Amino acid sequence: MNNDDTDGMLSQVRDFGTAQLFALPDASIVDLATGYIPLLVNFTFEDKAAKGLRKLTDQAEPEPAVYFSALEMVRDHSLLVLTGETGSGKTTFARHLAFSLAEGGLALAPRPVPRNDLGAVHDEHWGLDGVLPIYLTVEPSKTFDELLAASTESSIPSNKKLLLILDGIETAGDTKRQLLIDALAFQSLHPATKVLALGEISVVKSWALPAGYVRYDLLPLLKTQRREAAARLAGIDLEASRVALGHAAANPAQFIMAMHGGDVGDSAEAITDSWIVKVAGDAQTSELFCGLAFDALTADVDDPTIMPITRVRQLLAAVHLVGKPVDVVVDNFRKKPALWAPVMRSLAARLSGTDAANALIEALIKGNGEEVLKGALLAADLVKEAGALRDQIAGHLLTIVSDGALSAPERDVAGRVFSRWGDPRALDSLTEVPGGRFTFGSDSHPNSARPHHVTVEAFKIGTYPVTNGAYGAFIQETDRLWRSPDGFAEDRRNAPATDLTWHDARAYCDWLTERWRREGRIAADEHVRLPTEPEWERAARGDQPDMGADVLAYPWGHAWADDAANSEEAGLNTTCTVGLFPKGRSAYGCYDMVGQVWEWCTTLWGGDMATPNFRYPYANDGREALDAGPSIRRVLRGGCFSSGKLKACCTYRGSLEPDGFWRGNGFRILVSSVA
After folding, report:
1. How distant, in Å, are the alpha carbons of 69, 135, 522 from that of 197?
2. 531 with 539: CB under 8 angstroms?
3. Omega within 30 of 0 (cis) for the link into 157
4. Which of 73, 486, 581, 649 could connect to 552 by a Cys-Cys bridge, CB 3.0–4.6 Å?
5. Nearest to residue 636, comparing CAs of 658, 616, 614?
6. CA 195, CA 189: separation in Å to the nearest integer?
7. pLDDT digits (tens, 9 = 90+) for 590-630
8. Is the CB of residue 88 less than 8 Å from the CB of residue 218?
9. Three-class DSSP labels, 507-569
10. Alpha helices per DSSP H over 111-191
């Protein structure tokens, strides 16, 4: 590729820098190069440090989350999917990155970037030279090769360092997976290539990505970012003016609207109303704008000249639909749920407290199959009070959670609703595990070798990991220190309790023993404790034999199954409501044995993080001593939400000092007779 070919390929992306990004309150125009705000993702410095397991300072408070930027995720990953809601700045980020690379990377020089609202600021570094961007806007009717041909007029030598950007992958429809596979094939021909795909979170989060891709979510704007942007671009002091610092103004598109309209930003609807008064000026023009936005959303072919920002279209369409028959919006929602869900939410907020609001909800949960489950998921967000209508919705949500219906992110939403409303499942139930001789260990990793036979007595084990709700009751009664930032969050009561040490888990078991004895749930000669390592593996693995070093054992069998565990492959990057992956149940009915959280066992590992002192075969050699010193690590099993499928299995062994804690480790109780 000569310089002329390169210039032709870059001509489109060079124009991005001067394209209009938004208008300021004084009507002046800000272009993309000037107005870009660095975006953050849902991956923290702590997450990176704890990708395996690590020890925090003994009894120390956890550090506030410090987030990586989207640019750094592109830098650090060769195959990356970034997701965000409409208006989150996906396209702005992609185009700014492409423009910056086309200009030789000058706009990617190190710069200070706020990482949270508590004052953490770190320089953002790109550090990669000579990378050429290929920017492709995904279209539903075009294959990868067609998109590529339209963007590049000549062949691309394999020795070039490239960044292939696929913007708007949610529009790919039935070809979505093939599009990413084709991008992967392109990378194999051009090994120095990075692939960045961007898409709408409500659509893309449900995709099973081809092997090799990692996925992160764009975060809303921090208040710090908004203050700096307003001062830099418009000379506005947001604190003094009380503008655009509300929760709803954290969405970048809504931030610009709030700043333009002079609204505090507490709700998307208030932002919209203030903005349209400023922009339209009179009721007739406002009505015209809202009608145009509705028409643009319903059009089969997108016209980017009509209000090009989708979030603005959605908010204005909701204004247009007030007073219209509810079937109009419900029909559109069922055709394109991701596109119309924000319209539904905004419309419901405008109709709140009226008969029309109930009519909208009733229309959503009418019918059967997947469309009514999706409708119920949205309706749960709209219903305000307990009653018959909410009970109907709850029945559908239970189907979503218990049957593993819809995608994992959608089940996560249903689980959070149940946490607020009251989860109807018995989350403290126990599962019977028969005693017997079974295969223990695997040659798949040196620390898990060699496979051998171990015999255990029958026991009962928690069907689920111990939840925030259960552990929180212990904390409230005992006033024990707990470092979890979301342990008492309303929407996290049915998620696993985390950020607790081995000693915390044992103290909970002792407390629960006394409580359950008083309640008659266990006999006087039974106690609650943590499982030994063989007991944990028995509950997870059952009677599965060893199939060789290259075959892992999972609770469901020897072949990895998509959507069976909250592992790295699921893309949630955090814990979720327990039991959301029923495909991954063990033979005895235990949920979340792999992925979700690393689970404490009583068994000792040793003092070295890399290599256990207590190796296999398992033996009565002091490895179950409960009084070992604080430097002797204890075994953790099962992997967590950030563990890949090589660790999120029945045999991989992790470890941590007994005073260590992290948001990726929790525990599961076991009930047995007192020895």
Report:
1. 16, 10, 53
2. yes
3. no
4. 649
5. 658
6. 13
7. 999 999 999 999 999 999 999 999 999 999 999 999 999 99
8. yes
9. HHHHHHHHHHHHHCCCCCCEEEECCCHHHHHHHHHCCCCCCCCCCCCECCECCCCCCCCECHH
10. 144-151, 176-189
